[in-house]
Design goal:
Blueprint lengths: L5 E7 L3 H15 L4 E8 L13 E6 L1 H9 L7 E6 L14 H10 L4 E12 L4 E3 L6 E6 L6 E7 L2 E8 L1 E6 L6 H4 L11 E7 L9 E4 L4 E5 L5 E5 L2 E6 L4 E14 L5 H15 L1
Parallel strand pairs: 1-2, 1-3, 3-4, 4-16
Antiparallel strand pairs: 5-6, 5-16, 7-10, 7-14, 8-9, 8-13, 10-11, 11-12, 13-16, 14-15
Length: about 280
């Protein structure tokens, strides 16, 4: 990166502290040589592809800001650098006092990062087909009315795994297994494992356990209910899965690069868990 100009994007969550910090960081960037600046932008103002040509994107917020930024990326070129102005800071692991050191790492081109796979959904029905935004964490299937069960059929690589009723279903990446899936009783999976995790929420069949499969396998979710089912991707509603429709979930060909500040992800997971337990 240091032989030509480095293109850096700045994104902030809609919070005054994060906005001010991003503006101060922009001034720091402009004092550097051979740097092209894009932003600062509020994450709500960006659309798909806006930052694809960046070498690095600094996000000011929490893990949610990284998830929303990843959602609009259709390029594996930028490395995401999460500056933590949120709470947990599992993905956004750079503390604000260290940001100038991280910037210098980025400008020299010598920095550690994770390569994180994503998953994507392809909708099939009699009326239309559609492709979902990519998910860094998970797809969540839930009733369109609170308190109602959903009825799904789950097929993994042509093998029918389950057909029945449940409160909901989470299909997550290995990274996403540390988020909602873990809270819902899913397994602790090394975030760098090459797997996809299915976690059923309160299934009628109590013998049904979470399922871990190789990330290369395609997973089909078929709505065999008489009602619509909500599909939520990384915390954001996408659309309804209508009766008879099915969504095929597979690995997305464009991963995300995430700046690696400290330890491996599994070590960090247990450190954050212990930190939360001490606060209780």
């Amino acid at each position: 990166m240091n032989s030509m100009s480095t293109k850096i994007g700045i994104v902030f969550k809609p919070m005054e502290e994060a906005k001010r910090a991003s503006e101060d960081f922009a001034k720091l960037i402009l004092s550097k040589q051979k740097v092209e600046l894009l932003g600062p932008f509020c994450i709500t103002d960006l659309k798909v592809g806006d930052l694809d040509l960046c070498d690095a994107i600094f996000t000011f917020g929490g893990d949610g800001t990284i998830l929303k930024t990843a959602r609009i990326l259709n390029s594996a070129k930028p490395v995401l650098v999460g500056v933590n102005y949120g709470r947990l800071g599992f993905l956004a692991e750079v503390s604000p006092p260290l940001i100038e050191n991280v910037l210098n790492d980025i400008l020299t081109g010598h920095f550690p990062y994770y390569t994180i796979p994503r998953i994507i959904g392809r909708l099939y029905s009699e009326k239309e087909s559609a492709v979902s935004p990519p998910a860094l964490n998970e797809f969540f299937f839930a009733a369109d009315v609170t308190g109602r069960l959903i009825t799904l059929k789950i097929v993994i690589q042509d093998t029918m795994v389950y057909k029945g009723r449940m409160d909901g279903l989470i299909v997550s990446t290995a990274m996403g297994s540390t988020a909602y899936s873990l809270s819902a009783g899913g397994p602790v999976v090394d975030p760098e494992a090459e797997v996809t995790v299915l976690t059923h929420i309160a299934p009628i069949n109590i013998a049904l356990r979470p399922i871990v499969v190789n990330k290369s396998k395609k997973i089909s979710i078929i709505n065999v209910d008489t009602n619509n089912i909500k599909m939520i991707i990384d915390g954001m509603h996408w659309r309804e899965l209508l009766p008879g429709e099915h969504l095929e979930i597979s690995e997305f060909e464009i991963p995300i690069k995430l700046y690696r500040a400290q330890h491996d992800l599994l070590t960090k997971l247990f450190e954050k868990r212990l930190m939360l337990e001490r606060k209780l």
